[in-house]
């Protein structure tokens, strides 16, 4: 593959063009990447080791089309069936990758600019269960739960992207589940959506659904509003054959793709944080090479998402400091390569909206975001180590994410912000800033105010019922689900889609007349 030289390590600074016209305290794409847990020497070592592993060890179980493309570009298939990637080929894929692009919403105002160190918050998880909004009990998740999650997120300003969060376990057939998953997500929100697809044979139907909603294949290819997430590897250093076929089919159909490696430290990746990171980077870069060979113009997201296990039990645990620092390191490597990057963060091990939930989620999400991850998945709603989703948590997490985004925005020490002249004026005058025009002008632009977070006095809170934050969030989630039925997909389009596809959500469930 011919490499197109590109400038790496680009420095970015906040400027007025990055701030929306209404000058809010936070916005989609606040600039991160100030956190760098890896030293420059460590970054170089991670990169060199990943390239060496790809060149000398490679990956097994490559599909025939991958073998054909990689070997034609200079790779080698060993006698024991491992596909080797020469470092020139890998560097060429990095250098020629799209440095940034727009993840389109179904409406332009929901578009996300994915480039540089711009940070966006997302859901995610593919959980098999939910914590019931009414009872609080854990139960199997359904297609209706997925649609409900999407339409709550549709109203959350600080959750910028909807990644499929629960599995529709009431649809046992994989093809029908994949199609209806796409429909439920796209009907529930006009924000950009990401889903996974179980089998390559299911890609054409989902593509056809997206083309129908977009108004034609050309319209979708111009503004693709759905990304296909692909775990193209089965760690350690093996390709997932069927997933690679899904990846190839999705790229050819015009979908952006997210290239995911999700080894588990101590089980399917090394127990050390550094070793797990290196393996994930190598596996993700192998996917990038293949994606580039399928289509040099592919919109590909670098998504090394290694997970951490509790080595006492072997079970996955996403709430510890190890997961947080691992994701910050993965995000830093994405920024080092200057690739659109996604990280997994916010996988609290807690089962409810308690102190453990808030502490674990804040730690992991803040670190990945400050390290400059473009899309932080699992940042909202996820509980119980990826096993369950809480619809109420989307509401409370919206506040949490708003506060994290405000910290990413930073201090912005400029002469205007420091306001030395205002300090002098106040000190020579009334001695306080409450009545100053400068204070009034900055109330909305500089300060994030939580939607449901309680800042009243203890007495006021007690007199109003002393509700815990989880109860307040639950009430708001109930209100949203009772009233918000998105209409960005016109009624005629929905009826046409239903005439062509086996859609399991009823018209009544989506708030439309029969």
From TrEMBL:
| Keyword Transferase (UniProt) | yes
Q: Record's Pfam families?
A: MTTB
Disordered: annotated span: 1-25
Q: Name one GO molecular function term.
A: methyltransferase activity
- Record keywords: Cell division included? no
Here the segments flagged for biased composition (Basic residues) are 1-11
Q: Which GO terms describe its biological process?
A: methanogenesis; methylation
Superkingdom, natural source: Bacteria
- What are the EC numbers? 2.1.1.-
Q: Which keywords appear in this protein's UniProt record, sorted alphabetically?
A: Methyltransferase, Transferase
State the family named in the UniProt similarity comment for this chain. Belongs to the trimethylamine methyltransferase family.
Name by which UniProt lists this protein: Methyltransferase
